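User: what does the whole thing look like in 3D?
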Amino acid sequence: MASVRVAVRVRPMNRREKDLTAKCIIKMEGNKTSITNLKIPDGNAGEVLRDRIKTFTYDFSYDSMDSKSSPFVSQEKVFKDLGSDVLRAAFEGYNACVFAYGQTGSGKSYTMMGNPGDAGLIPRFCEGLFTRIAATTRWDEASFRAEVSYLEIYNERVRDLLRRKSTQTYNLRVREHPKDGPYVEDLSKHLVQNYSDVEELMEAGNINRTTASTSMNDVSSRSHAIFTINFTQAKFDSEMPSETVSKIHLVDLAGSERADATGATGVRLKEGGNINKSLVTLGNVISALADMSQDGGNTNLKKKAVFVPYRDSVLTWLLKDSLGGNSKTIMIATVSPADVNYGETLSTLRYANRAKNIINKPTINEDCNVRLIRELRNEIARLKALLVQGNQIALLDSPTALSMEEKLHQNEARVLELTKEWTNKWNETQNILKEETLALRKEGIGVVLDSELPHLIGIDDDLLSTGIILYHLKEGQTYVGREDASTEQDIILHGLDLESEHCRFENQNGKVTLVPLGGAQCSVNGVQVTERSQLNQGAVILLGRTNMFRFNHPKEAAKLREKRKSGVLSTFSLSMTDLSTSCENLSTVMLYNPG
Amino acid sequence: MASVSSDEWRAICDKFTNAQNLTVVDSQNDPDNDPFRSKYKARELLREIYCSLKSFEAGEGEEETGESGETVETGETGESGEQLPVEAPVDGQTEEAFSQGFCGDSPAGLRAAKLGAVEYYLGVNHVDTEELSAGQEHLMNCMKLLGKCRVSSENVSLFIHARNQLGILWAGRDETETAQGFLETAESIYQRYMKEDGSPPTDMADYFSTEENQLTHQERTKRFELAYTHTMYYLAQVYKNLGETERAAIYCHSTLQRQLKLNQFSPMEWALNAATLSQYYITKGRYMEGRHCLSAATVISGLAGEVPSEAAAQESETESERREQLRQKRAEIARCWIKYCLNILQDSKKLLEDSIGELDTDHTFDSIASLEEKVRCLLPMDFTEARAIFLVGQHYVTQAKEYFQMDGYVTDHIEILQDHSSLFRSLAFYEEDLDRRCKMHKRRVDMMEPVCMELNSKYYLMIRRQMMFELAETYNEMMDLKLTLANRQDETESLDNHTIKKFNNLCSASAKYFQMFLDSLCSPEGKQPEHLEEEVLRPALVARFRVARLYSRLICTSPPGQVENLDKSLEHYKYVVDYCDSHPEAVATVETELELSREMVGLLPLKINRIKAKIPANN
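Assistant: Here's the predicted 3D structure for the full assembly of 1214 residues, as structure tokens:
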């Protein structure tokens, strides 16, 4: 079963509601529960209808309004759905927790305790427990021990409801033990043999519970109460003695209509629109804010973990082991069907709707394993290469395959170098910046000039030169030559061995080609070119003997970067010695990569 | 009230004083089974006062119509005591309140204010005793009476108080916008009054006290300002409920500031609230505000005085409780500081990792503030800066652990340990010396390993899982560092035996903790879960994936050993693939890992076969 399940149950109209000729506003279909606001007139569609009828989905919606109708859900059915799973879980060694929540008079006691001859969840559960114990003991499979304790939390103080008169009972301390878990110091425990023992203790405890009469409600409980069954099974597991302990908590939550002295109803249960009156509760509000911003936003992003001190936490604290993971939890909310209770019922339904989120689930925070993924991608690439080459001795990643990215690497280092120079000379750039395709941004202490178009950056050795030259290579042709050329040149240069019509750059569909004209001296990456030659990102171009440029192609570079990020290209420059050992042990080698 | 004899008036004043005493003092001591006893009594007195005031009025021949304190009956409106009104009222305009109606100090104005005050007290009384509809009626009667008056020093306090109460009432019905309307009007009335008049306003209690008992100006101001502090606080909650967290935080901040300024706070409460507010700012990356709140928290918590000694605590219950409170809250403030240090380190690390040079430089303008303090609010850029923050964090770790000891506070203690470990991890990022970096990770292992083994899974399952995962990752990190170090020192030849042994130990330790994590998902009988719960789905598959990787990295010279390791590796990769095939909903959570696992499931057999092919040759 899922670790948390939420059910809502509606009771029949009571006498009082009938006397007031109250109307039924609750409807259940499948696992959905709808509530109608009769104050909003019927007959409209859309927005208004949504306001009039609100629908919630739970794990179970139990209609117990009319025992004669067919959808009527009996005590038996509720137990079968919810109780028997918890019971099984307890025998398997899980902790279990049953929460009951609802306005006074909404049928909470009926669901939990039931009436004579129509037993509720708790008696059925206990009966199941003891029946199974008896059966297992008869077969001598295991021996059992069950102890109960009963406490209440009132105004954040813990009180033993099964106290013996002489002992101190108020404000017991809640503590945690590394081996034994959360516990209440000095809380009395009582051995039980059967359900009637349990019943007796429960009744005794109920008498001690803090109850209050108001002009609204005859008797209503203003405290949370926790009835705990500690359940130990001892058996031999393949000759080894083994002991399993399960805790079963039955929790009666303080009704939602009441607030304790601090204005908080505990367990962060009461959200909704309520305003706390007293400034004493300012802390709760601030905590909630910190909590909201901690949980909110994009769930894919790693949350920022902060520390939020809670003031109303005794219940959450005590149930940590039940709410924290290795337990099975059921939450039952009970409601009245009558329109006179619209407000309370709606708030109960809303609360139940959020109930799953209340269970505090610590999550595992992983380190990002980007590096691991990168390594593995490399290995996959190598293994694939192996596959391609069959059983021959594998030539793993050849240096040529690496050269492209390596170059990009080196080039990027050079860009950094260049930008440093630029910072000293950036006056000129303001003019260039007026062009739309250029952008200037700060990078650390450096300045980076971004351009979207392919371009040439002048590299010159002249110590007296203070400017940086950037030539855009527009779509189409860009001619390079001297001032004295017969046709107008796009880029005008002078220098040793620079011809009047030296060369042209062709930019077609994002591909840039250098075309030397009439045997003019052109070289790319130190190699003389006489034919058309396509340029790649980072190419160093020498025109004549003194005009040196670096060719940048931002779009191509962006693609390469993207590839590198996704690991399609291996960015690790593996040394050859490493590669040879990799044949034997492909995966053991990795080089340090800062960051 | 010329026609009222002074005796009659004195009687009314006495009744009012009694009613106030019953409401404020006696009600505190009402028994748990009759919690509203005193308030019910106070209600009767207020009703009598109301009747008297009306009868004076009748005597004066000035009949008022429309309002009546008597028509509202109690407790008949159904089980919940609440009938939702058909439509929510909308609050009037501030402008009108200042320009229309009786002068506040005219006889008619004073009369309206007094009647309004009684209606107000009756309204609060009903609300306090969970009779909201009746309470609302009284409060609206009060508003109606005030509607006849112009805002002035005689009645401005009532203007604010009544709206505060209506704000609470409507918010309780989830009619947040209506509540917001009342409270924002209260806010603007206050501001306008302070701007245009500002003299200490009459408190409502003054309406019903004899001359010799009138409040001092100082006391009037104090009460008025406190009412407005409440308005701020209620608005904070309204904004919070509307999801406007930013605005809510500002109003919480104002509330705290006003408490401090008006000297109406208890130091420990205040300090803890300020510390908590810092956590909000931290989540927003606003470290300067966060640090400001934390520094204020530390300073103000000092005002709460010394922690009583253990001996003193044993002598008296009060001292014992005080000792507990002071120690706990100071430890909690320390934990807020730890998170500050941790988050600032992590934020900076994240930015440095993502791309150098996109650091937010906005904060540089706050240099003045950062000079004042011992800890920086700017993101650290290098080891020295990071270490300074780390040390502050570590200082607070020590402080917090003094109170949150393992025995008694397991969960808290471990959370602090985890933070300490994270501080080390963040610092290691800045450490360039790999050997020292490795030692920092070793410190993390040393602090977590024994604790993880000591804890009972039964009660601390999730915490143990977190620790197992973190230990596995830490060992993995150390393994990588060791290898990098070895490769760096000895680039020519393959690894020496000593290094291989170390490497394998770290590799196995990492795999062991991932495996332990996976085992923790099994049922109590040790059965593998068929279905992984949402919150462990990704960690479980990632753990498999990583174990698979670790097995393939173990260095082993014998081919059969290699095959054995690779078989295990393959098995774990297969699990990831098979699980995702049978649970398509899992695919989205582990896309990359799944893709790689699929590849490996296809390719690893090839590698295994190649090694196997060599085995007979070697034999």
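In plain terms: Chain A has a mean pLDDT of 74. Residues 399-424 of chain A form the longest helix (26 residues).
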